# Entry
Amino acid sequence: MKKVKTVYDHIRENNIKTAILVAMFPISFVALIFLFCWIIMPAQDAFNTMLQVAVPTFVVCLVWMVISWAFGDSMMLSGAGARQIHDDTPENKKIFRAVENVALAAGLPTPRVYIIEDNGLNAFATGRSPNDASVALTRGIINKLNDLELQGVIAHEMSHIGNRDIRLDMLLITGVGVTVFAADTMSRMIIYGDHHTSSDDNGKNNGAAVLIMVWLAFTVFNFIVSPILQLAVSRKREFAADACGAQITRNPGALADALRKISDASTVKTLEKSKSMAIACIAEPRKAFMGDLFSTHPDINERIKRLESM
# Structure
């Protein structure tokens, strides 16, 4: 008899897959630098060049992550046009009570609550830690979901907070931002070098060739490898948050019903131009290019199917 997967099975499987995918970022980055340099130099020299490039890149990533850690959540909320609310009106008290109940069930501190004045159905969580977290809900998702469905959505977002997914998103977004900036800097150096390199100067020619190969490695990483890995990580974390949300509310069917409604109207105007924000939302807030192929989220029908099987 085939074993029925529990919520805990889904959570464990997705966490293992996420760890593997995250490890692929630095592995693929250093591998690309080594392989491209190996084309024009011996393996030992290629390895040394890889170290000379990778170490300072990782240091810059770390510094930029510290800056993002301090200001990233406020930038996300401001960019989404989110407005903080307090339990000073009957409507706000209802929303606060739902968030408090889910937070209590999840064993987490109650986050700050923000509203995005948009009729689209979407939500996201942000913050440096569970003690400094925020949940943002669109006006549409509040008005169009019933109480149990809204609790399912809030539980999904609380799962992202509890699982430290916001920290993971920040790590990925920041790291890729640094490598994109580095590639742009190298492209300018290549253009500048073309005007100041004599054809008979072997040292300069070799240096320019190495720079070009490193730039190519960065470019392949930024525009091919990294986007694929980002999409894969984001999709695995959405599955994990669905499973954890179902565990918190003990009602996977309510979240499945909420996702059905969200799938019909998840677009949010203030989030349409922000790729990094799309990763944080419960559903793709933009019209995905080429349908689900480049979507930051897994197919919503598959998510519903998994929830209904729990």
Notes: The chain has two domains: 7-76+168-308, 82-162.
